[in-house]
Amino acid sequence: MKSKFNFVILFLSYTLLFFILSRASIYGVIFPFAYSMFFALAWVNQKVWLLIPSYIIGAIANNYHFEGIISCLVTIFMLALPYYIHLVAKKPMKKWELFIYAGLSQVAYLIFNILGGENPIYYIGTILLGLLFLFISISIFEPLIIRGMRYKLTTSELVCGAIVLMGISDGLSTCDIYGFSLLKLVVSFLILSISYTSNISYTILFSSIMGLGTLLRTNNPIFIAPFMIWTLAIIIFRMRNRIFPAIAMIASEMLIVYYFELYYSNSVITFIPVIVSALIFIIIPTKIYDEISVLLSNNNERLAMKNIVNKNREFLYRRLNNLSEVFYDMNQVFRKLIKRNMNEEEVKDMLYEEIKASVCNGCPEQKHCHRTFNDDTKRIFKELITIAFERGRITLLDLPSYLSSRCGKANYLISEINTLTKQYKSYSQLVGNVDTSKLLISDQLSGISGIMKSLASEVDSNISFDNVRENKLIEELASNNIICADAVVYEQDARTTMTSVIVREEDVNKLKLQQVVSKICGNKMTIFETYPTVKAGLINVNLKTAPMYDCLFGLASQPKSGNNVSGDCHSIERLDGEKFMFAICDGMGSGKEAGEKSETAINLVEGFYKAGFENEIILSSVNKLLNLESDDIFSTIDICVIDLKNGIADFVKMGSASSFIRSQDECKIIECEALPIGVLQDISPMTKKIVLKDKDFIILCSDGITDTFGSDQEMKDFILTIKTANPQEFADKILEKALANNNGYAVDDMTCLVVKIF
User: Fold this and answer.
1) Model-level pTM?
2) Under CATH, which number does the domain 551-757 receive?
3) CA distance 499 to 221
4) Cα–Cα separations (whole angstroms), residue 539 to 99, 202, 363, 457, 490
5) Which of 146, 407, 583, 621 could staple 639 via S-S, CB 3.0–4.6 A?
6) Alpha carbon distance, N-terminus to C-terminus of the chain
7) 650 φ/ψ angles, rounded to the nearest 5 degrees
């Protein structure tokens, strides 16, 4: 039932609109408005089966002569027939086709007037100006229907809307019923409503446009002054109580009629339209005006949204700072819980006392051994303990001859030393693992504290939104046939501009989108994220300042001959921001087992880097985790993290083969002296920072490749001979040369990763 009622309202609205525009003209001889509005509404997907009867009634009610009826039917035919053909053929109508159909629809109108002896210039003008008005109508209706009323119109769209209003004002100016002006009724009501629901500038603009519209037909500014006087009176008494502006407008109309005498007639019926519109304005419920006010207050909503964003950033900054302090304090607590193992001398002294108490207690020679020869006995016991630690156990042959000949508990002494040293080694390993676990947790807490501190610093300042560029961006995109529902432009930092635009799905991949955004923002912008909005058909596109550099990479690898699985593992990951991580991990050995070891290490490294941990914490934590394994896991790690914003590369190497940086005419060697990861609990990775240049190549290789060359210098000389701009070809040539060095046989797993900066 509600749907039927809506269709009835639409039908009546269209009929009234076409009746008004059929009467609108320029100088009373050119009538371009009605038929162009008819085609424009059909183009923006309004119900054709409603438009056709509405147009017939509206147009024929204004001109019911034979020529008028035939002209109206031809206009209907030139829309209905192509519409049906395109519908059956399932082929969308092009805009240029619509303009052709619209122009042809006025052929009957043109012929009738030429046969009647009228000047054809006026009727050709009707067709041409009608096509122009069709373009203008489409330009305002397309964004309103696609984006909705909640989004800001561009300047060009506002101009098109103003021209449509002027056409309606032109038609209304001819609609007088025995002196009762429909123009005054409509305009006075709308001026009251706009002033109540929107700002003063919109009220003045609307009254000016409607006044200018009356000039089109009569070239007489009779209504401009009254409309402006109404607006002035309403603005002065503008307040929440609607009675005062309504009374002010009625009073100003009485002054216009009886004092200024601006109208041709000063009868009572002259100001009745204003009284009626004032009463309607007062009677309409406040709730309706509140809804309209919300609809027109989009800018204020966006300002509130931006204030909320900055307020939330301030709140997030405080929370992150507090969390950072909590994790830092937890880190300190865990470090205090670590029980360090005793040093070597302390262990020997402790075990010496244990052995003396258990073996020598009650022995008749105790006083002789531990008083007369105390220093010698203590030295001998410690030497035996040292041998037991180094070899795992001692035997009778390790005892000095004078001790074995004099001591009656030699066998017991040997057994006790072996037992105690074995027990202490197990205990020491257990304590070491517990301490390593505590230190690992401590490192992670410290890393999390640092990450939160870094995040807090990123949100420590308010975002500066740029309303001027936002408006320019929407207008510029619209002029390039990209409908932008909304846009946000702000500075993330001194070097990065961020832009978020909401566009139609079909506009996302248009090259003009990035070009226009780059032009408005003043630097090259690149798309880094797209996702759908809550409104179907609209996509949110996020762009930011493109980094100074970009990179390409190539990978070439070969497992050890006889193996199907390589023990090498590589990683190519885009990190947060504009950073890329390239890494090669070589597990000790070859084949499946080595591959699993290297994959374990590289996965840990990847995860830590993505989370934002620092190099030292990452490798220290990975090393401790691998040390906790029951089996020895040794892996070399070769990492290069490139910041594309400034072209700086951070090299982090653990036991890996040398890396190379090939420039236009030179090649640098990045050597590594650090042990592989997992060898010792405490490690110190080799780190180096290099400033890259345009067209530099970075070469990372596993030792399966570098070992085939006689030296790093020999490999460097070969790299300088490679003449290609393609990083994949570069990597392939290095692998081919490495295999050729061993007559095509891979004695170890081979991996080569080449990155080109440009």
Assistant:
1) 0.52
2) 3.60.40.10
3) 46
4) 30, 30, 91, 31, 19
5) 583
6) 65
7) -105, 120
